[in-house]
Amino acid sequence: MAKAKESGQDLIEIAASAQPPVAKIADFQKFRYEENKKERASKKGASAGELKELWLSPRIADHDLKVRLARTEEFLKNGHKVKLTVKFKGREMAHQDIGYKVLQEALTLLGEKVAVEKDPKMEGRKLSMIVGKGKGGHNAETKNEQVST
Predict the structure, then answer these.
(1) Domain encompassing residue 26
(2) For residue 40, what are the CA distances in angstroms to 11, 33, 37, 43?
(3) What share of the chain has pLDDT > 70, as a percent?
(4) In whole numbers, what is the pLDDT of the chain averaged over residues?
(5) Residue 43: CB partners within 8 Å, gap ≥ 6?
């Protein structure tokens, strides 16, 4: 404490639980700034695993589906996972099998670029499936056979 007062700086406790406790002499404001800077830098790379959602319709046209799947590939390339959701409106609920066919076609078009992370599942009026990059997870080809219910 005396050395810190002599130099006009602060005594900062680094590891209180260590035996003996670790401390250093430095400017506290500068120390706090450096710690916050390190924390912000570590948070920067942490957002890479977001979940993106794309909505589809059971009556989606082929070209529209291809455009959505191109966007899906873009998200996957950036390291995100993608939730493909087929939304049913009104009487479309009577034909949920068409929604499963749309997701199966999407998997076929994406091919080995994707791996199914969560199988298609009805949640209210929505049929959802989560896909990730082709490495690891389930193989997209084996899931195509299971989706065709």
Answers:
(1) 2-45
(2) 24, 11, 5, 5
(3) 87
(4) 86
(5) none
Residue 122's Cβ-count burial label (10 Å; 0-12, 13-18, 19+) is middle
22-26 and 10-15 as β-strands: parallel, antiparallel, unpaired? antiparallel
- DSSP conformation letters of 81-99: EEEEEEE--GGGGGGHHHH
For residues 101 and 126, membership in a common domain is answered with yes
Q: Is the pTM of this model over 0.90?
A: no
Lowest mean pLDDT among 18-22, 42-46, 82-86: 42-46
Cα end-to-end distance, the chain, whole Å: 74
> Do 96 and 37 belong to one domain?
no
Q: Which of 100, 93, 136, 135 is nearest to 119 (CA)?
A: 100
**In total, how many domains does the chain have?**
2
Do 91 and 75 lie in a common domain? yes
Asked whether residue 26 falls in the same domain as residue 80, the answer is no
| DSSP 8-state symbol, 74 | H
Residue 136 has pLDDT above 50, yes or no: no
Dist. CA 4–CA 26, nearest whole Å: 8
Domain stops at, among 45, 60, 76? 45
Q: Are residues 58 and 131 in the same domain?
A: yes
CATH of the domain at 129: 3.30.110.10
